[in-house]
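User: hey, got a sec? need DUF19 domain-containing protein folded
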Amino acid sequence: MKILVIFACFSVVYAQKEHGKIMKECMEESGVNKDLLHYTFKTRNVTKDDNLIAFFTCTMVKYGSLNNQTCQVNLTGIKDMCTKMQLGDCSFVDTCEKKQGADCKETVFLVNQCVLPHLPGNGSENVIEACKNQSKVGADLIMKLHKEGIVSDDPSMVKFLGCVTDRFGCFDESGSISLKYLRGICAWKKCADCSFIDECEKKKGGSKDETAFLALSCAYPQMCKAKEE
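Assistant: Yep! Here you go:
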């Protein structure tokens, strides 16, 4: 499955406010090792660690994907995301939803072991890190992008955006950029109006770096506004 640049790198700007809260709560409740959790999401490999399984159980329950009493799994949310964001073949969701172990603990393990390899972001860390190194973009600018949705016009950020979008195949032969994945995120987040993306997609500069900057600096503020409304 092709890695989705806009989702993998920038969707955190529009993430639901509850996501961070749930993650923090479940990390505390489960006592999961932070290094193990980082390794799990980086490699998409779920190990049979009691605290890790407790973490996934906690998040699934809080997101409504697991009935902790009956251990019934419902991955409708993931399937909805997969479909609206055009991630490709979403049949894996049905397959993963049917996974069943000897007990609820094993079921949670099997379901997450099945789901994680298919989720967007798989392998994106290497590309992002490479583009950070190549562009020499400052950590403060990355933080503002992630936390506040602010696209700085600093040359290093312009270069970073161009690098990431180019490596993920967002440009056609003419140098025009595709924001179809951002459009998918807009629909998934149930923004009132996503038509602005069509106009932002038409932005074109003298280079891929400039085109990426113009398109994303056009889309981000309107994306946030659409979500707020």
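Quick note: The first helix runs from residue 5 to 10. Let me know if you need anything else on DUF19 domain-containing protein.
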